[in-house]
Write a structure and sequence with these properties.
By secondary structure, this protein is an alpha+beta fold. It contains 8 helices and 13 strands. The protein binds (3R)-3-hydroxy-3-methyl-5-(phosphonooxy)pentanoic acid. (3R)-3-hydroxy-3-methyl-5-(phosphonooxy)pentanoic acid (PMV) binds next to helix 2 and helix 4.
């Protein structure tokens, strides 16, 4: 390592991302190679900043709280020292709840690799950064870039072709509503949930091909700005993923009664003519999908909703 770099600070921001077509299941658990390609939207100003500096001992601060002895810390230290085996002082600021299925690991590991790139002046291209972010958390591969992003599952055993790239069709009117039902860390990690589903669910065999096909339909809906098709494809994909989890053993269930109550509200609003859909990750929280013109009505029915406009600068 170049000793001149010791005093330098690496600094970077990465947005969180929400998958519209989910990554669920790994073909390699060591380097997070997925069974299927996935497709997401990055969350603009919702994400993580990372400040990384070489130090004499490992220190982790998350949102101004010393977190050096948490389970997050061991995962993060292991990740950063896989590049150069040296201790770091790391400060993270994350503006979404941790480990509650709000994609916090995605923005954290993407911000960390971008901060290391900044610290060591590697100047890696976005493809390489996506591959390196993936090693920390699969979904982090999609947090290197803004807007709609597709993560190609790749075929190679080493993962050189498993990276994400931008799908260059912005949709300025598209909104996401974060509904936090429960912000406490989930009891079953996505890593464990995926493993159990792949190993025990009789429905899982149908999942990878269904997801690949859904990506093609979703991209067409985006190009045509067909929001009905877009919402249906995304919501159906999330429910299909949860169906594979429910049929795992022991079952993997992230929904709570409040999650279901909110789904029913979405369906009833749809019956009344509102173009609103949802997606759900490995947690109880729903992410509403709708267009800008419907912001007032969405706020009226979901009073604690946090509205994000991913393409609005
Ligand atoms: O990258 P992980 O291990 O946090 O897994 C993410 C899994 C889902 O959020 C459920 C789906 C996805 O594609 O983000």
């Amino acid at each position: 390592m170049n000793e001149n770099k010791v005093d330098r600070v690496g600094y970077a921001y990465a947005p969180s991302n929400i998958a519209l077509i989910k990554y669920w299941g790994k073909r390699n658990t060591e380097i997070n190679l997925p069974m299927n390609s996935s497709f997401s939207v990055s969350l603009g100003s919702k994400g993580a900043t990372a400040r990384v500096q070489i130090s004499s001992e490992p220190v982790l601060i998350i949102n101004n709280t010393l977190s050096t002895h948490t389970s997050w810390a061991s995962r993060i230290f292991k990740y950063v020292s896989s590049f150069y085996n040296t201790p770091y002082h790391i400060a993270l600021n994350v503006n979404i709840p941790f480990a509650a299925g709000l994609a916090s690991s995605a923005c954290v590991f993407a911000a960390l690799i971008l901060a290391l790139d900044n610290l060591y002046a590697w100047h890696f291209d976005t493809q390489t950064l996506s591959i390196l972010a993936r090693l920390g958390s699969g979904s982090a591969a999609r947090s290197i870039q803004p807007g709609f992003v597709e993560w190609h599952k790749g075929e190679s055993e080493g993962g050189v072709d498993s990276y994400a790239e931008v799908f260059p069709y912005p949709w300025p009117a598209f909104c996401i509503g974060l509904c936090v039902v429960d912000a406490t860390p989930k009891k079953i990690s996505s890593r464990e949930g995926m493993l159990r589903t792949v190993q025990t669910s009789p429905l899982y065999a149908a999942w990878p091909a269904a997801a690949e096909e859904a990506i093609q339909f979703l991209k067409k809906a985006i190009i045509e700005q067909n929001f009905t098709a877009f919402g249906q494809i995304a919501e159906h994909n999330a429910l299909t993923m949860h169906a594979t989890m429910h049929s795992a053993w022991p079952p993997v269930v992230y929904s709570t009664p409040e999650t279901i109550r909110m789904m029913q509200l979405v369906w009833s609003l749809r019956e009344q003519g509102l173009a609103i859909y949802f997606t759900q990750d490995a947690g109880p929280n729903l992410k509403l999908l709708f267009l800008e013109k419907d912001i007032p009505i969405v706020q009226q029915y979901f009073n604690a909703v946090d509205i994000i406009r991913p393409f609005f600068n």
